[in-house]
Amino acid sequence: RTVIELDTVRKAYPDGTVAVEGLSFSVREHEVLALVGPSGCGKSTTLRMVNRLVEPTSGRILLDGEDVTATDPVALRRRIGYVIQNVGLFPHRTVEANIATVPGLLGWDRRRTRARVSELLDLVGLPAATYAKRYPHELSGGERQRIGVARALATDPPVLLMDEPFGAVDPEFRRHLQTEFQRIQRETGTTVILVTHDIDEAARLSDRITVLSRGGKLEQVASPLAVLAH
Ligand code: ADP
Ligand code: ADP
User: Which protein residue has the closest C-alpha to ligand 1 atom 23?
Assistant: First the structure.
């Protein structure tokens, strides 16, 4: 089953920059698709279009067969978890409140939310007793990144979009978090697009690698085994 489908997508920003050109690919259910390529080749723009943070100039993006530009944004937030590097935590909200963002949108009660926050903090190795009441500025870069992952997983979304999710994490903890990611992904069967500039990370974590070239064009689709053999 195809979960995400891009059909001849083009994105030109208002200043004329063409970020993505004629891009078509699809992601099957339970698959981890890596999107790799040099800086500026349109990887983030692609994720942002899938998440409806940016509208394509032309072409279509379908989620479960439905055009995302015609989908209610709250319904999209429930179906798509989004993890980005460095940014994205609300600075004036505690860790707990950050993780509870989407549960809040969906009207979960306090008890259910509390329990889920606590479970997620354990999952990313930051126990609630220490971390729940902290603000983002009271965390290290790697800790913030882990909170970003916890927040994206809050409502068990069937789709996860990850933009350089391990970039800000200390090297020794990165492996641990990658392994955790693999475990969670296999357990939950989440469908993932993983953006990374690290081809080894892509090869280790994905089922299929899509390589973009400058100008946001599809260069090739590679198998992780072929990349690892190099
Ligand atoms: P990547 O994630 O692969 O680094 P991006 O999708 O961030 O690439 O950017 C693709 C291209 O679009 C780059 O040339 C970038 O400068 C440009 N770009 C990104 N966002 C904007 C914007 N809001 N306005 C104009 N150009 C943008
Ligand atoms: P890093 O080496 O990743 O930059 P930091 O030096 O920022 O880490 O933080 C080290 C530890 O101190 C982390 O466990 C972080 O949670 C904690 N910490 C950082 N800033 C604060 C703060 N303002 N209040 C409480 N704890 C903090």
Answer: 13
Q: How far is the CA of 46 from the centre of ligand 1 (A)?
A: 10
Nearest to 194 by CA among 47, 7, 91: 47
Cα gap 85→165, rounded to integer Å: 5
Q: How confident is the model at residue 87 (pLDDT cuts 50, 70, 90)?
A: low
Residue 93: what pLDDT?
A: 96
- pLDDT bin (cut points 50, 70, 90) of residue 14 is very high
pLDDT tens for 117-152 read 999 999 888 999 999 999 999 998 888 888 988 898
Q: Is the pTM of this model over 0.90?
A: no
What number is the ipTM of this complex? 0.72
Query: For atom 12 of ligand 1, which residue has the closest CA?
Result: 19
| Ligand 2 centroid – CA 44 distance (Å) | 28
Q: How far is the CA of 94 from the centre of ligand 2 (A)?
A: 15
Ligand 2 pocket check for 136: Cβ under 6 Å: no
**CB 121 less than 6 A from any atom of ligand 1:** no
Please state, in angstroms and rounded to a whole number, the distance separating the CA atoms of residues 175 and 205: 11
Ligand 1 proximity of 16 Cβ (cutoff 6 Å):
no
Distances (CA, A) of 223 to 2, 125, 163, 183, 209: 18, 32, 20, 21, 6
E-strand ranges in 49-187 read: 58-63, 66-67, 80-84, 159-163
